[in-house]
Write a structure and sequence with these properties.
Strand content of chain B: 15-25%
Structural class of chain A: mainly alpha
Order of helices and strands of chain B: HHHHHHEEHEHEE
Number of helices of chain A: 11
Oligomer: heterodimer
Distance between the termini of chain B: 24 Å
Helix content of chain B: 25-40%
Low-confidence stretches of chain B: none
Shape of chain A: globular
Structural class of chain B: alpha+beta
Mean pLDDT of chain A: 96
Largest interface: A-B, 98 and 123 residues
Helix content of chain A: 40-55%
Shape of chain B: globular
Number of strands of chain A: 4
Low-confidence stretches of chain A: none
Distance between the termini of chain A: 46 Å
Number of strands of chain B: 5
Strand order of the largest sheet of chain B: 4-3-2-1-5
Strand order of the largest sheet of chain A: 1-4
Largest sheet of chain A: 2 strands, parallel
Mean pLDDT of chain B: 96
C-alpha cells in the first residue's frame, strides 16, 4: 500500500532525478510500454482516451452550460445554487466537477480562476487546461498581479470593476459565467454557446464577441 | 511544506504565453491518458499531490508539466511496490501479464463521467465560523502537506461561504480521513500584497477550519 512517507517518496524522486530523461517522449513511452506489458491498460485505450479529449471533452461543454444559464432563468438559478448538480443535466459531470461553483461577471466584478499550489481545473466541463494555466508564471502572478495578467490577455477593465481571484485550494472548482453580449437578443441557445470561449470561463477574457469561438 | 510548488505571489516569472494550447505534443496527451487509465489502488489525491511537492526543486522548476506527472506516477507506483525503478526506467516488465482489454469510446466517456468524486462528508460538530465573520489564518508553516499557501499565512479575511464538512487535505496526505468544516475566505488584495494592489480587488481561497482563528 501507499507509504504516506514523505521522506521515502522524496528519495524516490531524487533517484528519478538522477535519471532525468533527455527526451520526454521516450520517458512517457517507457511508462506506457511497462503498463501495457503488465496488462494494466491496453495501448488502444490510451489512443481512444487521447481521441476523446481531442474531440469530445472540451470547452464546448462549458459553453453549452453558460448559454443555457443565459436563456433559462430556472437553470440559471440551479447553476448558481449548485453547479456540480446542474452540469449533470447535460451528463457533463466527471473529473473534478462535483464541487463546481459558478461565479458571475457583473458590471462591477470580474472573476479570474487560478490554482497556485498545483493545477486544479474543472476538466470534465472545460477539457484539458491551456498550458499557460499550468505555467509557473500564471500561477505565481494571477493572485498578486491579476490586472497585469489580464492586460497580457488583452483585457482592459473599465473603471469601477474589481477583480475577484479564485485560488482553487480545496476540491471546489470554479466556472466563470461571462456577461451575455449585447446584440444577442433572441439568439438560440446553440448560437449563444458558439460564442462562449474557454478563456472567458477561466476569466482571462471579459468581453465576448459575436463571432464563433 | 514550503516546497517549490507554492508559487502564488512569487516574482520573476515574466510574461505569460497566452496562446499556449492544452497539449503541444502527443506524449503530453498520452501521459494524461496513462494517469487517468492506470489507477493507483488506494491512496488519496493529497498524497498524490504531496508526491509532486517532494520532487527536488530543480526538477520541479525545469521539466515540462506532464514530465512532472510522469515522474510522480512512477514514484507513487514504486512507493507502493507496483513497479520497480528499473522497470519504470527501462519500460520492460520483469514479469509480463496477460494484456488488458481495450476500452471503447463509450466506456471511456462513462468512466470519465463516473469519476466524479465527492469530498463532502457529514460532520456533527457545528461550524466555528459564520458567513461575515472576520478570521485570521495560521501564521506558521507546517512541515507536511497543506493547502494554505504561504502568501495567505497570517492574513485577515472574511468568511464568504461555508461548505459544510469536507475531507481535510492535510490529513489525506497522511492517509487519514479527517473531516473539517470548509469555508471560502475572501481577502482584500491590499491585505495580502500591500498598497500597490488595487483597493477594489480581492482573493478568495477555500480553507479548512484548522487553518483559521477568530480575528
Amino acid at each position: 500500500m501507499a507509504s504516506y512517507d514523505a521522506k521515502k517518496i522524496g528519495d524516490i524522486h531524487r533517484h528519478l532525478h538522477a535519471h532525468k530523461p533527455s527526451d520526454p517522449a521516450l520517458r512517457i513511452k517507457a511508462l506506457e510500454d511497462l503498463a501495457v506489458e503488465r496488462g494494466l491498460v491496453a495501448r488502444e485505450t490510451i489512443d481512444t482516451w487521447v481521441e476523446m479529449y481531442a474531440e469530445r471533452i472540451g470547452p464546448k461543454r462549458g459553453a453549452q452550460v453558460i448559454a443555457r444559464a443565459w436563456v433559462d432563468p430556472a437553470f440559471h438559478d440551479r447553476l448558481f445554487e449548485d453547479a456540480g448538480q446542474a452540469v449533470k443535466e447535460f451528463g457533463y459531470e466527471g473529473h473534478a466537477t462535483e464541487h463546481l461553483k459558478a461565479v458571475a461577471n457583473t458590471a462591477t466584478t470580474h472573476n479570474l480562476v487560478v490554482c497556485t499550489l498545483c493545477s486544479c481545473y474543472p476538466f470534465a466541463v472545460l477539457g484539458m487546461s491551456p498550458l499557460w494555466y499550468r505555467s509557473a508564471a500564471y500561477r505565481a502572478r494571477a493572485v498578486k498581479d491579476p490586472r497585469g495578467v489580464l492586460d497580457e490577455f488583452g483585457v482592459r477593465l473599465p473603471e469601477g470593476v474589481g477583480v475577484r481571484v479564485w485560488d482553487s485550494t480545496a476540491e471546489l472548482r470554479y466556472l466563470v459565467v461571462p456577461q451575455r453580449p449585447e446584440g444577442t437578443e433572441g439568439w438560440s441557445e446553440a448560437a449563444l454557446a458558439a460564442i462562449v470561449t474557454r478563456d472567458s470561463m477561466i476569466g482571462t477574457q471579459r468581453d465576448l464577441t459575436l463571432e464563433a469561438a | 511544506m514550503d516546497g517549490p510548488h507554492d508559487l502564488g505571489g512569487k516574482d520573476g516569472f515574466g510574461p505569460i504565453d497566452v496562446t499556449a494550447p492544452p497539449f503541444r505534443e502527443e506524449w503530453e496527451a498520452r501521459q494524461w491518458a496513462l494517469s487517468k487509465n492506470v489507477p493507483i489502488p488506494g491512496g488519496t489525491i493529497d498524497w498524490w499531490r504531496h508526491g509532486i511537492e517532494n520532487m527536488d526543486p530543480e526538477t520541479y522548476m525545469s521539466v515540462p508539466y506532464f514530465v512532472k506527472w510522469n515522474l510522480n506516477e512512477i514514484a507513487h507506483r514504486v512507493d507502493r511496490g507496483m513497479f520497480t525503478l528499473e522497470e519504470a526506467l527501462s519500460g520492460r516488465a520483469a514479469q509480463p501479464a496477460p494484456p488488458a482489454n481495450p476500452a471503447s469510446m463509450d466506456t471511456l466517456l462513462e468512466r470519465l463521467r463516473t469519476n466524479n468524486t465527492s469530498f463532502a462528508r457529514p460532520l456533527e460538530t457545528p461550524p466555528g465560523f459564520a458567513v461575515g465573520d472576520t478570521v485570521i489564518t495560521q501564521a506558521s508553516a507546517v512541515p507536511g502537506h497543506t493547502r494554505l499557501p504561504a502568501y495567505a499565512r497570517g492574513a485577515t479575511g472574511r468568511i464568504a461561504a461555508w461548505h459544510g464538512g469536507h475531507l481535510f487535505a492535510d490529513a489525506g496526505a497522511e492517509g487519514r480521513h479527517v473531516v473539517e468544516h470548509l469555508y471560502t475566505v475572501e481577502f482584500a488584495a491590499r491585505t495580502l500584497w500591500g498598497a500597490e494592489a488595487d483597493a477594489q480587488d480581492t482573493v478568495c481561497l477555500d480553507l479548512w477550519e484548522p487553518y483559521l482563528a477568530p480575528a
